Amino acid sequence: MEQRLETGERAPHFSLLAAGSARRVSLRALAGRRVVLVFHLQGTTAPTAREINRAVRARHPDPREVLVASVIDLSIVPPVYWMSVSLILNQAYDRAKDELPPGVDPSEYVIILPDWAGRVSRGYAVRNTGRAAAIVVVDEDSNVALSYQGERPVEAVLEALDGP
Known about the structure:
single chain; alpha/beta; 21% strand; Glutaredoxin; five-stranded mixed beta sheet; 164 residues; 5 helices
């Protein structure tokens, strides 16, 4: 049986440097706002992250209310390839940034968090993100509101944010 974070449980602290913007993103700094963490792999499950981001932005356009961040477990990547992977992630950031409306701060809307050591993914009990993205919604008080990995991630996130 796979262990998952329980609803109401304190979300584990994390601090990661975002690809592209070089913004430091930490749970402490995000206190007071809801956070949607989408754990996925860069190729296979990345479309899920885009779908979730679009759906959340349609209902919650202000990232000061709800922040959406992609977390990519890169612990299987040998350090010798980190520079190449960083370049690929920065290119993904630039492509996503180009899709934003003018005047929008991309560092608030496009957040790609490389988890080089896999510590955040392990801390959030996330596994097998190559098959399905895993979602954790953290509430304003830094508690887990949702821990989900399944066939309806967009609906699960919206329900956690908006209620049934």
